[in-house]
Design a protein that fits this description.
The complex is a heterodimer of chains A (about 120) and B (about 110). With about 120 residues, chain A is mostly beta strands. Chain A contains no helices and 11 strands. In chain A, strands 2, 4, 5, 6, 9, 10 and 11 form a 7-stranded mixed beta sheet that branches. A 4-stranded antiparallel beta sheet of chain A has the order 1-3-8-7, with no helix packed on it. With about 110 residues, chain B is an all-beta fold. Classes of the chains: A mainly beta (about 120), B mainly beta (about 110).
């Protein structure tokens, strides 16, 4: 596809349930980011991959959050034992740059809206 | 990460220019000024970026103060489709590329 694709678009989970959110970045994009956006707030950085290497996970709020990108393309964000405060939109973005680059633009998916009940 | 300050909301009339201000008094020499916008129920999209000189592209213009402590995003003719939250972000060139979003400015465009 032409853009970043995320699935599912909407997810309702019961408290305590595990969830997995998928991100298909733009083909060939080296960098992949996950963000969490609470209602009425700006997106907050969660984690960053350069190819398959997770270089920055400083934004993950707890050890219940885990992300992987095993082959350097598709990424999955997993949340274990979901809690109500995990309810948010989870955004994935990809970028061609490796850091030092003339391509500064990050392309975002539409996000997955997670509601924990 | 250096911080930016934006008004919470602004209003504009359709087909008129819009000037969205951003203050970044603690900006450092290696910080680029980026603007993204987020339409309702969409992910953010890139608008424009600059370092020192004013910049123009098909979407907007970016005017950067001489001391770089403030900048202004200019939409030359607002349309209803420009109604969105606009984020001003400082990004260190060469870092991982992660974006630190603030609250942004919610732009309303009146017909």
């Amino acid at each position: 596809g032409a853009g970043v694709s995320q699935s599912p678009r909407y997810k309702v989970a019961k408290r305590g349930q595990d969830v997995a959110l998928r991100c298909d970045p733009i083909s060939g994009h080296v960098s992949l980011f996950w963000y969490q956006q609470a209602l009425g707030q700006g997106p907050e950085f969660l984690t960053y991959f350069q190819n398959e290497a997770q270089l920055d996970k400083s934004g993950l709020p707890s050890d219940r959050f885990f992300a992987e990108r095993p082959e350097g393309s598709v990424s999955t964000l997993k949340i274990q034992r979901t809690q109500q405060e995990d309810s948010a939109v989870y955004l994935c973005a990809s970028s061609l740059n490796r850091g030092l680059s003339v391509f500064p633009e990050a392309f975002f998916g539409q996000g997955t809206r997670l509601t924990v009940v | 990460d250096a911080k930016t300050t934006q008004p919470n909301s602004m209003e504009s009339n359709e087909e008129e220019p819009v000037h969205l201000p951003c203050n970044h008094s603690t900006i450092s020499g290696t910080d680029y000024i980026h603007w993204y916008r987020q339409l309702p129920s969409q992910g953010p999209e890139y608008v424009i970026h600059g370092l020192t000189s004013n910049v123009n592209n098909r979407m907007a213009s970016l005017a950067i103060a001489e001391d770089r402590k403030s900048s202004t995003l200019i939409l030359h003719r607002a349309t209803l489709r420009d109604a969105a939250v606009y984020y001003c972000i400082l990004r260190v060139y060469g870092n991982t590329g992660k974006l630190i979003f603030g609250q942004g400015t919610t732009l309303q465009v009146k017909p």
